[in-house]
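Go through this chain.

——
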Amino acid sequence: MDTVKIAVIGLGYVGLPLARLFSTKYTTIGFDMNRARVDALMAGHDATLEVSDDLLQSAIANGFKCTADVEDIRDCNFYVVAVPTPVDKNHNPDLTPLYGASTTVGKVISKGDIVVYESTVYPGVTEDECIPVVEKVSGLRFNIDFFAGYSPERINPGDKLHTVEKIKKVTSGSTPEIGKKVDEVYASVITAGTHLAPTIKVAEAAKVIENSQRDINIAFVNELSKIFTRMGIDTQDVLEAASTKWNFLPFKPGLVGGHCIGVDPYYLAQCAQTFGYNPEIILAGRRMNDGMGEYVANQVVKLMLKKGIQVLNSNILILGFTFKENCPDVRNTKVIDIYNSLKEYNVNIMVYDPWVNPEIVKYEYEIEVVNELPLKKFDTAILAVAHDEFSHFQVKKMLKEINVLFDVKGTLDKSIIDGRL
Protein backbone atom coordinates (compact mmCIF):
# COMPACT_ATOMS: atom_id res chain seq x y z
CA MET A 1 0.00 0.00 0.00
CA ASP A 2 2.89 2.38 0.64
CA THR A 3 3.83 2.26 -3.05
CA VAL A 4 0.43 3.51 -4.24
CA LYS A 5 0.70 6.79 -6.14
CA ILE A 6 -2.68 8.21 -7.10
CA ALA A 7 -3.77 10.45 -9.97
CA VAL A 8 -7.32 11.80 -9.95
CA ILE A 9 -8.55 12.81 -13.42
CA GLY A 10 -11.12 15.62 -13.17
CA LEU A 11 -11.08 18.13 -10.32
CA GLY A 12 -14.72 19.12 -10.02
CA TYR A 13 -17.26 18.52 -7.28
CA VAL A 14 -16.29 14.84 -7.08
CA GLY A 15 -12.63 14.67 -8.02
CA LEU A 16 -11.20 17.42 -5.83
CA PRO A 17 -12.63 16.28 -2.46
CA LEU A 18 -11.54 12.73 -3.24
CA ALA A 19 -8.04 13.77 -4.33
CA ARG A 20 -7.65 15.90 -1.22
CA LEU A 21 -8.72 12.97 0.93
CA PHE A 22 -6.34 10.54 -0.79
CA SER A 23 -3.50 13.02 -0.29
CA THR A 24 -3.76 12.55 3.48
CA LYS A 25 -2.38 9.03 3.04
CA TYR A 26 -0.84 8.73 -0.43
CA THR A 27 1.18 10.76 -2.86
CA THR A 28 -1.64 12.25 -4.91
CA ILE A 29 -1.79 14.40 -8.03
CA GLY A 30 -4.96 15.98 -9.32
CA PHE A 31 -5.26 16.42 -13.09
CA ASP A 32 -7.66 18.69 -14.94
CA MET A 33 -7.57 20.03 -18.49
CA ASN A 34 -8.85 23.40 -17.30
CA ARG A 35 -5.62 25.27 -16.52
CA ALA A 36 -7.47 28.18 -14.95
CA ARG A 37 -9.12 25.74 -12.55
CA VAL A 38 -5.75 24.18 -11.72
CA ASP A 39 -4.13 27.58 -11.13
CA ALA A 40 -6.96 28.62 -8.79
CA LEU A 41 -6.65 25.40 -6.80
CA MET A 42 -2.89 25.71 -6.47
CA ALA A 43 -3.47 29.27 -5.24
CA GLY A 44 -5.53 27.69 -2.45
CA HIS A 45 -9.16 28.30 -3.40
CA ASP A 46 -11.88 25.93 -4.63
CA ALA A 47 -14.64 27.82 -6.46
CA THR A 48 -17.07 24.93 -5.94
CA LEU A 49 -16.65 25.39 -2.16
CA GLU A 50 -16.54 21.62 -1.66
CA VAL A 51 -13.06 21.84 -0.12
CA SER A 52 -12.40 24.69 2.27
CA ASP A 53 -9.45 26.97 1.67
CA ASP A 54 -7.83 25.79 4.92
CA LEU A 55 -8.08 22.10 3.97
CA LEU A 56 -6.87 22.73 0.43
CA GLN A 57 -3.94 24.90 1.47
CA SER A 58 -2.95 22.38 4.13
CA ALA A 59 -3.03 19.57 1.55
CA ILE A 60 -0.87 21.58 -0.85
CA ALA A 61 1.59 22.35 1.93
CA ASN A 62 1.82 18.60 2.58
CA GLY A 63 2.59 17.76 -1.04
CA PHE A 64 -0.77 17.60 -2.84
CA LYS A 65 -0.41 18.92 -6.36
CA CYS A 66 -2.85 19.87 -9.12
CA THR A 67 -1.73 20.00 -12.73
CA ALA A 68 -2.91 20.39 -16.32
CA ASP A 69 0.21 18.66 -17.67
CA VAL A 70 -0.41 15.00 -18.44
CA GLU A 71 3.29 14.17 -18.03
CA ASP A 72 2.99 14.98 -14.32
CA ILE A 73 0.81 11.91 -13.77
CA ARG A 74 2.89 9.44 -15.78
CA ASP A 75 4.58 8.03 -12.67
CA CYS A 76 1.29 7.26 -10.92
CA ASN A 77 0.01 3.69 -10.69
CA PHE A 78 -3.57 4.14 -9.44
CA TYR A 79 -5.70 6.32 -11.71
CA VAL A 80 -9.14 7.55 -10.65
CA VAL A 81 -11.45 9.03 -13.30
CA ALA A 82 -13.99 11.51 -11.93
CA VAL A 83 -15.28 13.43 -14.93
CA PRO A 84 -18.90 14.46 -15.65
CA THR A 85 -21.31 12.15 -17.48
CA PRO A 86 -24.01 14.44 -18.88
CA VAL A 87 -26.83 13.86 -21.34
CA ASP A 88 -27.28 15.67 -24.65
CA LYS A 89 -30.28 17.78 -25.69
CA ASN A 90 -32.16 14.58 -26.55
CA HIS A 91 -31.43 13.11 -23.11
CA ASN A 92 -29.05 10.52 -24.54
CA PRO A 93 -25.93 9.72 -22.46
CA ASP A 94 -22.91 11.76 -23.55
CA LEU A 95 -19.76 9.74 -22.87
CA THR A 96 -17.44 12.29 -24.49
CA PRO A 97 -15.78 13.33 -21.18
CA LEU A 98 -15.22 9.67 -20.31
CA TYR A 99 -13.64 8.94 -23.68
CA GLY A 100 -11.36 11.95 -23.22
CA ALA A 101 -10.33 10.90 -19.72
CA SER A 102 -9.73 7.32 -20.89
CA THR A 103 -7.50 8.65 -23.64
CA THR A 104 -5.55 10.62 -21.06
CA VAL A 105 -5.13 7.53 -18.90
CA GLY A 106 -4.08 5.50 -21.94
CA LYS A 107 -1.23 7.92 -22.61
CA VAL A 108 0.38 7.40 -19.20
CA ILE A 109 -0.73 4.02 -17.82
CA SER A 110 1.93 1.34 -17.36
CA LYS A 111 2.01 -2.41 -16.76
CA GLY A 112 0.49 -3.41 -13.46
CA ASP A 113 -1.42 -0.14 -13.02
CA ILE A 114 -5.07 0.18 -12.04
CA VAL A 115 -7.66 2.64 -13.38
CA VAL A 116 -10.82 3.18 -11.34
CA TYR A 117 -13.85 4.99 -12.73
CA GLU A 118 -16.12 7.04 -10.44
CA SER A 119 -18.34 8.71 -13.04
CA THR A 120 -21.99 7.63 -13.03
CA VAL A 121 -22.71 5.30 -15.95
CA TYR A 122 -25.03 2.49 -16.95
CA PRO A 123 -23.84 -1.11 -16.49
CA GLY A 124 -21.15 -2.05 -19.00
CA VAL A 125 -19.70 1.37 -19.79
CA THR A 126 -16.46 0.86 -17.85
CA GLU A 127 -15.51 -2.43 -19.51
CA ASP A 128 -17.21 -2.01 -22.91
CA GLU A 129 -16.66 1.68 -23.64
CA CYS A 130 -13.83 3.07 -21.52
CA ILE A 131 -11.35 0.20 -21.24
CA PRO A 132 -11.10 -0.33 -25.05
CA VAL A 133 -9.99 3.31 -25.34
CA VAL A 134 -7.29 2.78 -22.71
CA GLU A 135 -6.17 -0.39 -24.50
CA LYS A 136 -6.02 1.28 -27.90
CA VAL A 137 -4.07 4.32 -26.73
CA SER A 138 -1.69 2.48 -24.39
CA GLY A 139 -1.18 -0.69 -26.41
CA LEU A 140 -1.61 -2.63 -23.17
CA ARG A 141 -3.97 -5.57 -22.63
CA PHE A 142 -6.81 -5.39 -20.15
CA ASN A 143 -6.56 -7.75 -17.16
CA ILE A 144 -3.12 -8.83 -18.35
CA ASP A 145 -1.05 -5.64 -18.44
CA PHE A 146 -3.38 -3.29 -16.56
CA PHE A 147 -6.54 -3.59 -14.49
CA ALA A 148 -9.69 -1.64 -13.71
CA GLY A 149 -12.21 -0.92 -11.00
CA TYR A 150 -15.39 1.03 -10.49
CA SER A 151 -16.30 2.94 -7.34
CA PRO A 152 -19.28 5.24 -7.92
CA GLU A 153 -19.14 8.73 -6.47
CA ARG A 154 -21.65 9.65 -3.80
CA ILE A 155 -20.79 13.30 -3.32
CA ASN A 156 -23.69 15.50 -2.22
CA PRO A 157 -22.77 19.06 -3.33
CA GLY A 158 -23.04 21.64 -0.58
CA ASP A 159 -23.40 19.01 2.17
CA LYS A 160 -20.81 19.72 4.86
CA LEU A 161 -22.06 16.90 7.08
CA HIS A 162 -21.94 13.95 4.67
CA THR A 163 -18.48 14.60 3.26
CA VAL A 164 -16.67 12.07 1.07
CA GLU A 165 -14.98 10.16 3.90
CA LYS A 166 -18.27 9.87 5.79
CA ILE A 167 -20.22 8.20 2.98
CA LYS A 168 -19.90 4.43 2.61
CA LYS A 169 -18.17 3.59 -0.67
CA VAL A 170 -19.07 0.84 -3.12
CA THR A 171 -15.96 -0.65 -4.74
CA SER A 172 -15.26 -3.26 -7.40
CA GLY A 173 -12.48 -4.64 -9.57
CA SER A 174 -12.00 -6.31 -12.94
CA THR A 175 -10.74 -9.44 -11.15
CA PRO A 176 -11.41 -10.64 -7.59
CA GLU A 177 -7.82 -9.82 -6.62
CA ILE A 178 -7.99 -6.31 -8.08
CA GLY A 179 -11.35 -5.77 -6.39
CA LYS A 180 -9.67 -6.42 -3.04
CA LYS A 181 -6.83 -4.02 -3.88
CA VAL A 182 -9.21 -1.27 -4.95
CA ASP A 183 -11.30 -1.81 -1.84
CA GLU A 184 -8.20 -1.68 0.35
CA VAL A 185 -7.13 1.68 -1.09
CA TYR A 186 -10.54 3.26 -0.56
CA ALA A 187 -11.06 1.65 2.84
CA SER A 188 -7.84 3.22 4.06
CA VAL A 189 -9.33 6.74 3.78
CA ILE A 190 -13.13 6.25 3.88
CA THR A 191 -14.02 6.23 7.58
CA ALA A 192 -17.61 5.18 6.85
CA GLY A 193 -16.33 1.92 5.36
CA THR A 194 -16.67 0.23 2.00
CA HIS A 195 -18.77 -2.41 0.26
CA LEU A 196 -16.95 -4.61 -2.24
CA ALA A 197 -19.36 -5.48 -5.05
CA PRO A 198 -18.81 -8.81 -6.86
CA THR A 199 -18.36 -7.21 -10.30
CA ILE A 200 -17.90 -3.84 -11.94
CA LYS A 201 -21.33 -4.09 -13.59
CA VAL A 202 -23.00 -4.63 -10.21
CA ALA A 203 -21.30 -1.51 -8.84
CA GLU A 204 -22.35 0.49 -11.93
CA ALA A 205 -25.94 -0.70 -11.60
CA ALA A 206 -26.03 0.07 -7.87
CA LYS A 207 -25.06 3.68 -8.50
CA VAL A 208 -27.44 4.35 -11.36
CA ILE A 209 -30.48 3.05 -9.41
CA GLU A 210 -29.72 5.15 -6.31
CA ASN A 211 -30.70 8.40 -7.98
CA SER A 212 -33.32 6.80 -10.21
CA GLN A 213 -35.12 5.65 -7.07
CA ARG A 214 -35.12 9.19 -5.66
CA ASP A 215 -36.23 10.59 -8.99
CA ILE A 216 -39.26 8.30 -9.16
CA ASN A 217 -40.27 9.04 -5.57
CA ILE A 218 -40.04 12.80 -6.12
CA ALA A 219 -42.02 12.44 -9.36
CA PHE A 220 -44.76 10.74 -7.35
CA VAL A 221 -45.08 13.61 -4.87
CA ASN A 222 -44.87 16.12 -7.73
CA GLU A 223 -47.85 14.41 -9.28
CA LEU A 224 -49.62 14.49 -5.93
CA SER A 225 -48.94 18.23 -5.77
CA LYS A 226 -50.66 18.75 -9.11
CA ILE A 227 -53.65 16.66 -8.02
CA PHE A 228 -54.06 18.29 -4.61
CA THR A 229 -53.66 21.80 -6.04
CA ARG A 230 -56.68 21.15 -8.26
CA MET A 231 -58.57 19.94 -5.20
CA GLY A 232 -57.65 23.03 -3.20
CA ILE A 233 -55.67 20.95 -0.72
CA ASP A 234 -52.21 21.98 0.53
CA THR A 235 -49.78 19.23 -0.45
CA GLN A 236 -47.30 20.08 2.31
CA ASP A 237 -50.05 19.67 4.91
CA VAL A 238 -50.95 16.29 3.42
CA LEU A 239 -47.34 15.10 3.51
CA GLU A 240 -46.92 16.32 7.07
CA ALA A 241 -49.94 14.33 8.16
CA ALA A 242 -48.93 11.20 6.21
CA SER A 243 -45.37 11.30 7.56
CA THR A 244 -46.67 10.51 11.06
CA LYS A 245 -46.74 6.86 9.95
CA TRP A 246 -43.42 5.21 10.80
CA ASN A 247 -42.70 3.82 7.32
CA PHE A 248 -43.88 6.74 5.19
CA LEU A 249 -41.07 7.98 2.93
CA PRO A 250 -40.49 11.73 3.50
CA PHE A 251 -40.14 12.98 -0.08
CA LYS A 252 -41.25 16.49 -1.02
CA PRO A 253 -42.32 18.00 -4.34
CA GLY A 254 -39.93 20.28 -6.16
CA LEU A 255 -37.53 20.86 -9.02
CA VAL A 256 -35.27 17.93 -9.80
CA GLY A 257 -32.06 19.12 -11.42
CA GLY A 258 -28.38 18.73 -10.80
CA HIS A 259 -25.87 16.36 -12.25
CA CYS A 260 -27.21 13.18 -10.65
CA ILE A 261 -30.93 12.76 -10.01
CA GLY A 262 -31.89 14.70 -13.13
CA VAL A 263 -29.48 12.74 -15.35
CA ASP A 264 -28.88 9.21 -14.05
CA PRO A 265 -32.34 7.81 -14.90
CA TYR A 266 -31.67 8.53 -18.58
CA TYR A 267 -28.52 6.39 -18.39
CA LEU A 268 -30.48 3.50 -16.93
CA ALA A 269 -33.28 3.95 -19.46
CA GLN A 270 -30.85 3.99 -22.38
CA CYS A 271 -29.22 0.79 -21.15
CA ALA A 272 -32.60 -0.93 -20.71
CA GLN A 273 -33.64 0.00 -24.24
CA THR A 274 -30.51 -1.56 -25.74
CA PHE A 275 -31.69 -4.82 -24.16
CA GLY A 276 -35.12 -4.46 -25.74
CA TYR A 277 -36.96 -3.27 -22.65
CA ASN A 278 -38.91 -0.01 -22.52
CA PRO A 279 -38.64 1.37 -18.95
CA GLU A 280 -42.06 2.92 -18.44
CA ILE A 281 -41.87 3.99 -14.79
CA ILE A 282 -38.37 5.47 -15.04
CA LEU A 283 -39.19 7.60 -18.09
CA ALA A 284 -42.60 8.59 -16.73
CA GLY A 285 -40.87 9.91 -13.62
CA ARG A 286 -38.44 11.88 -15.77
CA ARG A 287 -41.24 13.41 -17.81
CA MET A 288 -43.04 14.48 -14.66
CA ASN A 289 -39.97 16.06 -13.08
CA ASP A 290 -38.73 17.68 -16.28
CA GLY A 291 -42.05 19.50 -16.58
CA MET A 292 -42.16 21.01 -13.09
CA GLY A 293 -40.45 24.29 -14.02
CA GLU A 294 -43.09 25.04 -16.63
CA TYR A 295 -45.79 23.99 -14.18
CA VAL A 296 -44.52 26.44 -11.55
CA ALA A 297 -44.48 29.27 -14.09
CA ASN A 298 -48.05 28.55 -15.16
CA GLN A 299 -49.25 28.39 -11.55
CA VAL A 300 -47.65 31.76 -10.85
CA VAL A 301 -49.32 33.36 -13.87
CA LYS A 302 -52.71 31.97 -12.79
CA LEU A 303 -52.26 33.45 -9.33
CA MET A 304 -51.30 36.81 -10.82
CA LEU A 305 -54.41 36.86 -13.01
CA LYS A 306 -56.65 35.96 -10.05
CA LYS A 307 -55.28 38.98 -8.20
CA GLY A 308 -55.77 41.28 -11.17
CA ILE A 309 -52.04 41.77 -11.74
CA GLN A 310 -51.26 42.48 -15.38
CA VAL A 311 -48.84 39.81 -16.51
CA LEU A 312 -47.54 41.59 -19.61
CA ASN A 313 -44.42 43.62 -18.69
CA SER A 314 -44.79 42.73 -15.02
CA ASN A 315 -41.68 42.55 -12.85
CA ILE A 316 -40.90 39.12 -11.39
CA LEU A 317 -38.18 38.23 -8.91
CA ILE A 318 -36.78 34.69 -8.80
CA LEU A 319 -34.88 33.88 -5.61
CA GLY A 320 -32.17 31.31 -6.28
CA PHE A 321 -30.77 29.74 -9.44
CA THR A 322 -28.58 26.84 -8.29
CA PHE A 323 -29.91 23.30 -8.57
CA LYS A 324 -29.97 22.98 -4.77
CA GLU A 325 -29.56 25.08 -1.66
CA ASN A 326 -26.32 26.41 -0.17
CA CYS A 327 -23.97 25.58 -3.02
CA PRO A 328 -22.87 27.39 -6.21
CA ASP A 329 -23.63 24.43 -8.51
CA VAL A 330 -25.79 25.46 -11.48
CA ARG A 331 -25.41 22.25 -13.50
CA ASN A 332 -28.75 21.16 -14.96
CA THR A 333 -30.68 23.58 -12.75
CA LYS A 334 -34.40 23.45 -13.40
CA VAL A 335 -34.86 27.06 -12.31
CA ILE A 336 -34.00 27.91 -15.92
CA ASP A 337 -37.24 26.17 -16.94
CA ILE A 338 -39.22 28.55 -14.72
CA TYR A 339 -37.37 31.47 -16.25
CA ASN A 340 -37.86 30.36 -19.86
CA SER A 341 -41.54 29.55 -19.35
CA LEU A 342 -42.24 32.94 -17.78
CA LYS A 343 -40.38 34.70 -20.58
CA GLU A 344 -43.05 33.44 -22.98
CA TYR A 345 -45.47 35.82 -21.24
CA ASN A 346 -43.25 38.84 -22.01
CA VAL A 347 -42.46 39.65 -18.41
CA ASN A 348 -39.37 41.26 -16.88
CA ILE A 349 -37.44 38.80 -14.74
CA MET A 350 -34.66 39.39 -12.25
CA VAL A 351 -32.85 36.34 -10.85
CA TYR A 352 -31.12 36.88 -7.52
CA ASP A 353 -28.71 34.31 -6.12
CA PRO A 354 -25.87 35.24 -3.75
CA TRP A 355 -24.19 31.86 -4.29
CA VAL A 356 -23.60 31.80 -8.03
CA ASN A 357 -20.93 33.20 -10.29
CA PRO A 358 -22.91 35.39 -12.74
CA GLU A 359 -20.29 34.85 -15.45
CA ILE A 360 -20.78 31.08 -15.33
CA VAL A 361 -24.57 31.46 -15.53
CA LYS A 362 -24.21 33.87 -18.44
CA TYR A 363 -21.95 31.42 -20.27
CA GLU A 364 -24.02 28.31 -19.56
CA TYR A 365 -27.56 29.69 -19.82
CA GLU A 366 -27.24 33.10 -21.53
CA ILE A 367 -29.18 34.92 -18.82
CA GLU A 368 -28.25 37.52 -16.22
CA VAL A 369 -28.13 36.68 -12.51
CA VAL A 370 -27.35 39.24 -9.83
CA ASN A 371 -25.63 38.77 -6.47
CA GLU A 372 -27.18 41.91 -5.01
CA LEU A 373 -30.74 43.21 -5.22
CA PRO A 374 -31.57 46.73 -6.44
CA LEU A 375 -33.96 48.98 -4.57
CA LYS A 376 -37.12 48.32 -6.55
CA LYS A 377 -40.51 46.70 -6.09
CA PHE A 378 -41.70 43.55 -7.85
CA ASP A 379 -45.16 42.30 -8.76
CA THR A 380 -44.27 38.70 -8.03
CA ALA A 381 -41.55 36.72 -6.28
CA ILE A 382 -40.75 33.03 -6.57
CA LEU A 383 -38.63 31.27 -3.96
CA ALA A 384 -36.96 28.68 -6.18
CA VAL A 385 -34.00 27.62 -4.03
CA ALA A 386 -33.95 27.41 -0.21
CA HIS A 387 -30.58 29.04 0.48
CA ASP A 388 -30.05 29.78 4.17
CA GLU A 389 -29.83 33.46 3.26
CA PHE A 390 -33.47 33.37 2.21
CA SER A 391 -34.77 31.96 5.50
CA HIS A 392 -34.68 35.43 7.09
CA PHE A 393 -35.09 37.36 3.86
CA GLN A 394 -37.87 39.92 4.08
CA VAL A 395 -39.21 39.14 0.63
CA LYS A 396 -42.51 40.95 1.20
CA LYS A 397 -40.59 44.23 1.44
CA MET A 398 -39.47 43.67 -2.14
CA LEU A 399 -43.07 43.39 -3.40
CA LYS A 400 -45.74 45.86 -4.41
CA GLU A 401 -48.91 46.16 -2.33
CA ILE A 402 -50.79 43.75 -4.59
CA ASN A 403 -48.45 40.85 -5.27
CA VAL A 404 -47.94 37.12 -5.63
CA LEU A 405 -45.43 35.11 -3.61
CA PHE A 406 -44.91 31.51 -4.67
CA ASP A 407 -42.84 29.07 -2.60
CA VAL A 408 -41.37 26.23 -4.66
CA LYS A 409 -39.48 24.77 -1.69
CA GLY A 410 -42.20 24.95 0.96
CA THR A 411 -39.97 26.76 3.48
CA LEU A 412 -41.69 30.13 3.85
CA ASP A 413 -44.36 30.94 6.41
CA LYS A 414 -47.64 29.67 4.98
CA SER A 415 -49.43 32.85 6.03
CA ILE A 416 -47.45 35.09 3.65
CA ILE A 417 -47.50 33.00 0.47
CA ASP A 418 -50.07 32.68 -2.29
CA GLY A 419 -49.07 29.24 -3.50
CA ARG A 420 -46.56 26.42 -3.14
CA LEU A 421 -45.90 22.95 -4.46
Remarks:
- The first strand starts at residue 5 and ends at 9.
- The first helix runs from residue 15 to 22.
- The radius of gyration is 23 Å.
